[in-house]
Write a structure and sequence with these properties.
CATH architecture: 3-Layer(aba) Sandwich
Order of helices and strands: EHEHEHEHEHEEEHE
CATH superfamily: NAD(P)-binding Rossmann-like Domain
Distance between the termini: 34 Å
Number of domains: 1
Shape: globular
Bound molecules: NADP nicotinamide-adenine-dinucleotide phosphate
Number of strands: 9
Helix content: 40-55%
Strand content: 15-25%
Radius of gyration: 16 Å
């Protein structure tokens, strides 16, 4: 039986590149995003692959509750909202907006999905953070604060899952060329999404744990 990975934010950018590399390596994939048309296009683009799709908004409790609970071999919590915004200014409040998915959604996904991995005493939880938590770009303080909160959650998961048989990895990519950059000027050294996806695949295949910066 081939291995099974759940990928959030699977229709674009880094998540989409992850779908490709896991499909190429014959993994079964559960792919989640909000937009049903994009999920249908994803399935159509991979006719020979084993892909189950779910349209769910993971910033809501109902969206998280719709996610199938299985003993996945790997869970990739990748979906996030990226938007400029400062903590002290701006209307609407970017931090409150971004918190719902980037922090609370991931926390609820972990609470929903990890008990099945614990019962199986195997699996890999991989979380996509950001290199931004190392240098706090001035116009992105709200986004980076959510990623720092996610880094805190990761440290908690890592501690609570120690010696359970479940591996934990936090991937912190530098700027990566995806739809996130549509409204921003990308830096010259921006990474391709498939480069980050290859690092994610290697981390899971080789059971690399801890925080990994990808630049
Ligand atoms: N791009 C970068 O420069 C960069 C750098 C460092 C870290 N990262 C991190 O890498 C990860 C992926 O970023 P990306 O740039 O590849 O993203 P992206 O291209 O903007 O794609 C986001 C994906 O998440 C889905 N999504 C968004 N909101 C969702 C929600 N509420 N519920 C479920 N799915 C949702 C989107 O589909 P729908 O819109 O259809 O839901 C899409 O599939 C994020 O965690 C990001 O913070 C990115």
């Amino acid at each position: 039986m081939s291995k099974h990975v759940l990928i959030t934010g699977a229709t674009k950018g880094i998540g989409r590149a992850c779908v490709d590399i896991f499909a190429q390596n014959n993994w079964r994939i559960t792919a989640i995003a909000r937009t049903a048309d994009d999920l249908a296009a994803l399935e159509a683009a991979l006719p020979g692959a084993s892909v189950i799709t779910l349209a769910a908004d993971l910033s809501t409790e109902a969206g998280v509750a719709a996610v199938p609970v299985l003993a996945y071999d790997a869970i990739i919590l990748n979906a996030a909202t990226f938007a400029p915004g400062q903590l002290l200014t701006g209307t609407p409040d970017a931090f409150t907006d971004l918190w719902a998915l980037n922090v609370k959604g991931n926390h609820l996904m972990a609470r929903r999905l990890l008990p099945a991995l614990l019962a199986a005493r195997q699996g890999h939880l991989l979380v996509v953070g950001s290199l931004g938590t190392d240098y706090w770009p001035a116009h992105l303080t709200a986004y980076v604060a959510t990623k720092y909160a996610l880094r805190g959650l990761f440290l908690g998961w890592q501690a609570e899952l120690a010696d359970t048989g479940i591996h934990t990895t936090l991937i912190a990519p530098g700027a990566t060329l995806t739809a996130s950059w549509e409204k921003e000027e990308p830096p010259a050294d921006i990474l391709p999404a498939d480069y980050v996806a290859a690092a994610i695949f290697r981390a899971i295949q080789d059971q690399q744990t801890g925080r990994m910066v990808v630049t």
